[in-house]
Design a protein that fits this description.
heterodimer; A: 732 residues; alpha+beta; Aldehyde Oxidoreductase, domain 4; 3 domains; 5-stranded mixed β-sheet; 18 helices; B: 173 residues; Ubiquitin-like (UB roll); DNA polymerase, domain 1
């Protein structure tokens, strides 16, 4: 392996630093029309009248589409289902009818020769509503929340064990609505060519959007192509098709013309969000620090029309040994759009509650937080009592603590200072799943020694282009520069959406399987050469390295790939395979981490700075230590935002988000981020999959907010359980 | 399926603002455009001149994705109208490389993996070039502070700071 495991610079780096990389709103086309969306001002009710007369009179306006005049769309709600949307419920149908289900819902699309004209005309659309009573407040609606039936099965009797426990801790932790806020605006450029549509869409799944649009518009698959060669960040918001794509299709079909539709930042707040969630934890322990009972209840918001939820509670019983455990997950239906996956959905919120609760338990037990976690450490998946394919979490604690200097921590709150600032050190555990999905992939090897690798996966900034090039270069025995990677195109071999940390494992094994077909064919070609040095070699002894087909047992023996192809009169070798992973229900597959955070808090003003974070991660084989480090670092920065900054505020009297912009919805900026150290602990794993890959997209954020919250407690002696930890809560 | 474009309703046409000619020197090339006064410099670059390297992230001067160099100074191009910049020299991310060689800041961003998705990157790079020219940032803390108008949602900040330090050191004699 020449490239796998090395810190390789992004192969798409030059395109991204020169502005050459084309995103959804960048696609060039002649004769583009532009769209501007009009959105609902009320959260619930119906459109009584919608007057587009003034908008239509603006010079340069081409049309205004509403539910009254739009081109045909599917009637059946089922036609709007996608690969990753909730199973329960009926998806939102943009411009479908007069029903208003959330504030910010698109209700008209103004089309004009120029974007500025469309935007101006959109301001002239007059809407009268028949408003209905609505609800948007989780803290009120929690009383009506309904239980979902999917949490893991309980064990023992958690209530009884809790009542009998020597040391008990029970508390509620709150995570507000958070928005993904990728830097790129949601956009679709729909190129119209004689009834055929090529759509550059901002999405994490070109096939998901392709299938959705074909279904909604009853289009033949070959009449529509969806591309997302570059995506300016998704964080989960682009897993499901968002409404810019169907609106762009509606517009292109109405005008029979190419259309660009770019949403505004404000409009993006009505696409999707991380659901506001109350995490209630009850932990019962013996004085020595072993857990007797774990109860975890999550109460989260969802929309009125779909039941969105992820696994928040199961992590608590999975991560730590406890003979008794129970879980409840309830949904409060509110008049907001459906929530969506956002950066380790479920785990980010659930583990925040769990890891703060564990910190509080450690305080009650008067033992070190790491010591508590080691006493409850589990080498087996507690739900199914099965071993892990690998779990090097102990190493994470050890190496993370050593790098951070944890042994110098005075456990007493308010005991550490730096001038006028209180210093706090906190830690937490992180956990995520090591998922892998069936993936198809094509490799074309040409006689000049160049390979093209293609697959419908998108690179949403995670580094997929680069790891695909690395893995393919190694398995084909070619230099990295000789590999071209094509991604994010619905006409390429099928792949699922890019998410869940499954892309690296899924695509790498698809490369391995396809490259093996290339290897077999090259072996046959090499054997057929006259006086072939590989004439007697068996396939299992054949490897590809340095552009040659070699005998592994004697690497001096071999022939150049290009010679073998030329001799066999083959200009190109092309193989496409679909890789499926073997079922294995005898092992649990997870990644783990230990996060250590230092905060400095101004005692008088309550200003909090996260001055140091060490995140030690156990995630199997790391394909690219450079890009993987960036992924973990990005997760940590997301965790800093979650802990200290991020909160979407709703005016519950209007049912409307109040801070739908990046100035009032605070995200970390450069000055908020200080030293972040990422450690990848060694975790060989031959069971999870042949290459030992687990994925690192989500694990970086899980636990980070808890480590920071625990550090704030250590610094100040004040426990703030409601995120974000702002100075008013600290001083109040 | 026939187009469903509706006839313009009766009543007076509401005119769009009259267009005005604007001369810009963009990445060293003289460009003439005719735009309405409500067109921002950002939209002029992206939609009229085809220079989509400069990104729109908020259109409100909140995120810095649209940062370009205007007569050498870094500005948010969404916060100024094209007609206000008649005669100005604009450098965008497309104009930084010279003779096929990346600008030192561009190379440093690759070397330090100072981006993931790349949507904020053109703005970060233009902002960094402007920052270095300002000569105000003499420490890591000052770089962080003076780069805080450019949001990176992927969280590449420590790598951005490392990249800028590398570029600064290479510029020093």
């Amino acid at each position: 392996m020449v490239y796998i495991g090395t810190p390789t610079s992004r192969v798409d780096g030059p395109a991204k630093v020169t502005g050459a990389a084309k995103y959804a709103g960048d696609a060039a086309a002649s004769g583009l029309a532009y769209g501007a969306v009009v959105t609902s001002a009320i959260p619930k009710g119906r459109i009584a009248t919608i007057d587009t007369g003034a908008a239509l009179r603006v010079a340069g306006v081409l049309d205004v589409l509403t539910h009254e005049n739009r081109p045909r769309m599917a009637r059946r709600a089922a036609a709007y289902k996608d690969d990753v949307g909730p199973e329960q419920g009926s998806p939102f149908r943009p411009l479908y009818d007069d029903t208003i289900m959330f504030s910010g819902q698109p209700i008209a699309l103004v089309l004009a020769e120029e974007w500025e004209i469309a935007r101006f005309a959109a301001s002239l659309v007059r809407v009268e509503y028949e408003a209905e009573p609505f609800a948007t407040d989780l803290r009120v609606e929690r009383e009506r929340a309904v239980a979902v039936d999917e949490p893991p099965k309980p064990r023992g009797n958690a209530d009884k064990a809790y009542a009998a426990a020597a040391i008990r801790h029970e508390a509620e932790y709150f995570i507000p609505i958070e928005h993904h806020n990728p830097m790129e605006l949601y956009a679709s450029t729909a190129l119209w060519e004689d009834g055929k549509l090529t759509i550059y869409d901002k999405t994490q799944g070109v096939l998901n959007v392709h299938n959705y649009l074909c279904s909604v518009f009853d289009m033949k698959p070959d009449k529509l192509r969806v591309l997302s060669p570059f995506m300016g960040g998704g964080f989960g918001s682009g897993l499901r098709p968002q409404y810019e794509a169907p609106l762009a299709v509606l517009a292109a079909r109405a005008l029979e013309r190419s259309v660009r539709l770019v949403l505004t930042r404000q409009q993006m707040y009505a696409l999707c969000y991380r659901p506001a969630t109350i995490e209630r934890l009850a932990l019962g322990a013996a004085p020595g620090g072993t857990l007797d009972s774990v109860s975890h209840e999550a109460i989260a918001v969802t929309s009125q029309y779909e039941d969105y939820f992820r696994n928040d509670t199961g992590w608590s019983g999975l991560l730590y040994k406890s003979p008794n455990a129970k879980y409840v997950h309830r949904l409060a239906r509110v008049d907001l759009p459906t929530p969506s996956d956002m950066r380790a959905p479920g785990a980010t919120t659930g583990v925040y509650g769990l890891e703060c609760a564990m910190d509080e338990l450690a305080v009650a037990l008067k033992i070190d937080p790491i010591a508590l976690r080691l006493r409850c450490y589990s080498d087996r998946d507690q739900h199914d009592d099965i071993p892990y394919t690998s779990k090097q979490l102990r190493k994470c604690y050890r190496q993370g603590a050593a790098a951070f200097g944890w042994d110098r921590r005075n456990p007493k709150p308010r005991s550490m200072r730096d001038g006028s600032e209180l210093v706090g050190w906190g830690m937490a555990t992180g956990v995520w799943e090591a998922l892998q999905m069936d993936t198809a992939l094509r490799i074309v090897l040409t006689a000049n020694g160049h390979a093209e690798v293609s697959c419908a996966f998108s690179d949403i900034g995670t580094g997929t282009y680069t790891i695909v090039a690395q893995v393919a270069a190694d398995l084909l025995g070619l230099p990295l520069e000789a590999v071209t990677v094509r991604l994010g195109d619905s006409t390429l071999p099928q792949a699922p959406v890019e998410g869940g940390s499954w892309t690296a494992a899924s695509v790498s094994h698809a490369i391995a399987k396809t490259a093996d077909e290339i290897r077999k064919e090259l072996w046959r070609l090499a054997k057929a050469m006259p006086n072939s040095p590989l004439g007697a070699c068996r396939l299992e002894d054949i490897a590809l390295a340095d552009g040659r087909i070699i005998d592994k047992t004697d690497s001096g023996r071999g022939v150049a790939m290009t010679d073998a192809m030329r001799h066999g009169r083959r200009d190109r070798l092309e193989h496409e395979t679909t890789n499926s992973f073997a079922e294995d229900d005898k092992h649990a597959r997870n990644t783990h981490s230990a996060i250590f955070a230092e905060v400095k808090v101004d005692e008088e003003l309550g200003v909090i700075r996260v001055t140091r974070v060490v995140n030690a991660v156990a995630a199997g084989r790391i394909l690219n230590t450079k890009t993987a480090r960036s992924q973990i670092m990005g997760g940590v920065v997301g965790g800093i935002g979650m802990a200290l900054h991020e909160e979407t505020l709703i005016d519950h009297t209007l049912g409307r988000m109040m801070n739908a912009n990046i100035a009032e919805y605070h995200v970390p900026v450069n000055a908020d981020v200080h030293d972040i150290e990422v450690i990848f602990v060694d975790e060989p794993d031959e069971l999870v999959n042949p290459l030992g890959i687990k994925g690192v997209g989500e694990i970086g954020i899980v636990g980070t907010a808890a480590a920071i919250a625990n550090a704030v407690y250590h610094a100040t002696g004040k426990r703030v359980r409601d995120l974000p930890i702002t100075l008013d809560k600290l001083l109040g | 399926m026939a187009p469903t474009i509706r006839k313009r309703p009766n009543g007076q046409t509401i005119p769009a603002p009259a267009k005005i000619p604007v001369s810009l020197t963009v990445n060293g090339v003289p460009r003439e455009i005719v735009v309405a006064p409500w067109v921002t410099l950002l939209d002029a670059l992206r939609e009229r001149l085809g220079l989509t390297g400069t990104k729109k992230g908020c259109d409100h001067g909140q995120c810095g994705a649209c940062t370009v160099l205007l007569d050498g100074r870094r500005i948010n191009s969404c916060m100024t109208f094209a007609v206000m910049q008649d005669g100005a020299k604009v450098t965008t991310v497309e104009g930084l490389a010279r003779d096929g060689a990346l600008h030192p800041v561009q190379q440093a961003f690759i070397d330090h993996d100072a981006f993931q998705c790349g949507a904020c990157t053109p703005g970060q790079i233009c902002s960094a070039v402007g920052l270095i020219a300002e000569g105000r940032a003499n420490s890591v803390e000052e770089i962080r502070e003076l780069m805080s108008g450019n949001i990176c949602r992927c969280g590449a900040y420590p790598n951005i700071v490392a990249a800028i330090r590398q570029a600064m050191e290479r510029e020093r004699p």
